User: Which sequence fits this backbone?
């Protein structure tokens, strides 16, 4: 994977191509010590049909919604399109046979300024689909449920919690992942304090019950996933219906199939939750993965 970094100036709508291994971000940037910024990670899939930026528009719309939630300037679609195209050009020039990779793009608030002016910073760089992701796609994952520490549906009463915005403040999500690892599981599954299943630290949950696909309602307190929405948009062609629902842990344990879905993972089977073995639907896992990679 090439060490390309694109530095973006959202104010002048310009960018420059530079080197990911060189120091680039001043520590005084508010993203560095406050996590004050937003990001997206989008999967780029390449095959005989060409190059697909999976859920490109869903990602960009969520980037704009996150910017709005944090009172950052509205991202310029032409600028970010050019940035993404530049990353793809760099990656494919370095490795013409590459079949998939991710692009992480971000915007921070920039420096703390005394004049109150806002000068955000942007950047984008490629991320590999690593062995860990490939293993999860092939073998599935185990999870432990963890209390998210707030009641479901609190977001509308507490907009400052930024629930539903994809911010650069992921220390809690990272800690949950480590906690799961220390307790013998691959993943955490967040549950609201009042018992509603929410999401993983970096993925949404979908379950199948008969001919119904179910996923927690983003309003309950989670990130509205581009991958989950992509799958829901294709439910009918799989002979399934798709709905949002309040799920408890029992619903997940007794489901006919359960998946962690996200841009880089695509869809991975949830095989075990809190030590309970779950039903695995290998066929649907493969179909989900194909649908997502086709974008
Ligand atoms: N939930 C959280 C907290 C995430 O960080 C992510 C993605 O990283 C997702 C869900 C899945 O979102 P997407 O399918 O858009 O990648």
Assistant:
């Amino acid at each position: 994977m090439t060490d390309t970094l694109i530095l973006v100036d959202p104010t002048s709508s310009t960018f420059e191509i530079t080197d990911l291994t060189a120091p680039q971000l001043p520590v005084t940037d508010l993203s560095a010590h406050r996590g004050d910024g937003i990001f997206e990670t989008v999967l780029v899939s390449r095959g005989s049909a060409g190059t697909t930026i999976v859920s490109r528009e869903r990602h960009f719309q969520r980037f704009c919604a996150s910017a709005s939630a944090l009172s950052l300037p509205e991202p310029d679609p032409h600028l970010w399109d050019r940035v993404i195209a530049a990353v793809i050009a760099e990656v494919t020039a370095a490795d013409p046979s590459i079949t998939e990779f991710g692009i992480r793009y971000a915007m921070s608030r920039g420096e703390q300024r005394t004049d109150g002016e806002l000068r955000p910073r942007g950047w984008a760089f490629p991320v590999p689909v690593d062995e860990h992701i490939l293993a999860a796609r092939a073998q599935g994952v185990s999870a432990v449920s963890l209390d998210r520490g707030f009641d479901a549906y609190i977001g509308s009463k507490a907009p400052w919690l930024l629930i539903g915005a994809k911010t650069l403040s992921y220390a809690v999500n990272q800690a949950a992942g480590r906690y799961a690892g220390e307790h013998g599981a691959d993943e955490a599954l967040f549950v609201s304090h009042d018992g509603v299943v929410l999401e993983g630290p970096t993925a949404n949950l979908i379950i199948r019950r008969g001919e119904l696909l179910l996923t927690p309602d983003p309003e309950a307190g989670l990130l509205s996933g581009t991958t989950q929405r992509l799958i829901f948009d294709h439910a009918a062609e799989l002979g399934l219906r798709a709905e949002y629902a309040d799920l408890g842990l029992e619903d997940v344990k007794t489901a006919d199939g359960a998946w962690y879905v996200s841009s880089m993972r695509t869809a991975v089977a949830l095989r075990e939750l809190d030590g309970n073995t779950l039903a695995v639907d290998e066929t649907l896992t493969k179909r989900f993965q194909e649908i997502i990679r086709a974008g």
Q: What stands out?
A: The helical segments are 30-34, 56-69, 77-94, 131-139, 171-182, 226-233, 249-253, 282-294.
